[in-house]
Amino acid sequence: MAPRVGSLWDAVGNTPLLRIGSLSRRTGCDILGKAEFMNPGGSIKDRAAKGMIRRAEEQGLLKPGGTIVEGTAGNTGIGLGLLGRERGYRVVVTMPDNQAREKYELLEAMGVEVRKVPVVPFANPLHFFHQARTLAEQHGWFWANQFENPANGDFHYETTGPELWEQCEGRVDVLVAAVGSGGTMSGVSRFLKEKNPALRVVLVDPPGSGLYCFVREGKMEGSGSSITEGIGIMRLTENFRRARVDEAMRLSDQDMVETLYHLAREDALVVGTSAALNVRAAWEIARRHQGEGLRIVTFLCDHGSRYASKVFNADFLASKQLEVKPLP
Q1: N or C: which terminus of the chain has fewer CB atoms within 10 Å of its end residue's CB?
Q2: 30-35 and 17-19: which strand pairing?
Q3: Residue 166: which residues within 8 A CB-CB, separation 6 or more?
C-alpha cells in the first residue's frame, strides 16, 4: 500500500477537542478546549493564514513568486510564513517590538523578513497595521489584512465551527473567546448560532481593549494595558462586525496568570496567554452554573513555549507585579 502523504497546507485544522479535566470536575460542567496549538504553525492563526492565501490565489491576487505582507503580533505572521514559504511566496511582516522573542526567532528561522516597529496607538501611521499597508502599496505586494479581510472569518465558518459542532455531537451551550482580528469569533459564532440559536456567545477581553464596553454599551472604550499578546483591540474590524456576541466579560492579567499555571500543573496543558484567558472565562461561567452540566467550549489558541521568556519567567512576572497563585 502506498503511504498517505500530505503537506503542511493539508495539516491545518481538524484539531482535537480536549476536556479540561480539573476544572470540569470542580464545576460539574464540561469545559472543552479546542487544541489549536496542534496546527502545524502552532496556533489557531494557521487557519486565518490558509483562508486568506487560498482566497487570494483564487482571485489572482497572489501569483507564483509573489510577496505576502502582513502586520501581526506574531502568530498570523508565523502561519503566513509557514504556508506562504511552503507555496513559494516571499513573506514580510511588520510586528510591534514588544512581543515574546520566541516569535521573532521562529519567523526569522523560516526565512520571513521581520520588521519591528514601535508600539504606538492605531491612529499613528507608524502602527504595524499601517506600515504593512504602506509596504503593500509601495511594492505591489499582497497585503493579507487579517483584521478587515473576510476570508479570515469565512475560513473559521467553513472549518472550525463545523469541527466543533461535530465533536460536540450537536450540543454546545456556551462559546467563549477572546478577540484579536475577530476572525475566529466571527466565523465560529455565526456557524454555531445557525445550528443552535439558543447558544450563548461570550467575549472575554483583557485590560486596555475596548470590545468589552462595545458589546455592553455600544461604545469603544478601554483603559490600562495587558501582557496578553494578539488579543484586544480598540476598533471595530470587518471580521468582528460579522460576529454574533451576546455578552462580554473583562478579566485581569492576574486572572490569566493563575489559570495559565493551573492548566500547566494540573492538566499538563502548557498554553499561551490568550488560551489561559479563554479558559478562565469558561471557568467563571461554569462556577456560576455549578452542577448544571453546561457544555462550554473555547480555544487553546497556541502553545505556552511561545511565551517562555515572559509568562514562564519569574523575573518578568515580578516586574509586572503578577503572582503565581492557586485559583480561588
Answers
A1: N
A2: antiparallel
A3: none
**What are the catalytic residues?**
45
What pLDDT is stored for residue 103 in this prediction?
A: 87
Q: Grid coordinates representing 190?
A: 455565526
Q: State the pairing for strand pair 200-205/174-177.
A: parallel
**Residue partners of 289: CB distance under 8 A and separation at least 6:** 27, 29
pLDDT for the residue numbered 229 = 87
Name the burial class of residue 326, with classes exposed (0-12), middle (13-18) and buried (19+) by CB atoms within 10 angstroms of its CB.
exposed
Residue 122 confidence (pLDDT)? 86
Contact 60, 93 (CB under 8 A): no
Low-confidence ranges of the chain (pLDDT < 70): 1-3, 5
Query: At 212, which helix (H) or strand (E)?
Result: helix 211-217
What's the chain's length in residues?
A: 328
| pLDDT in the model for residue 102 | 87
Return d(Cα 200, Cα 184) in angstroms, integer.
Answer: 16
In angstroms, the CA 65 to CA 309 distance is 35
Question: Mean pLDDT, the chain, as a whole number?
Answer: 95
Angle ∠(260,266,271) on CA atoms, nearest 5:
35
In the numeric block, the cell 481593549 is attached to 209
Cell numbers given for 275: 488560551
Domains and CATH numbers, the chain: 8-38+160-319 (3.40.50.1100), 44-143 (3.40.50.1100)
DSSP string, 250-286: E--HHHHHHHHHHHHHHS---B-HHHHHHHHHHHHHH
Tell me the helix, strand and coil percentages in the chain, rounded to 5: 45, 15, 40
| Residue that the C-alpha cell 487557519 belongs to | 47
> Mind listing the pLDDT tens digit for each residue in 38-75?
999 999 999 999 999 999 999 999 999 999 999 998 89
Q: Determine the Cα–Cα distance for residues 324 and 28; give it in Å rounded to an integer.
A: 25
φ, ψ of residue 47 to 5 degrees: the values are: -65, -45
- Number of Cα atoms under 13 Å in the Cβ half of residue 148: 8
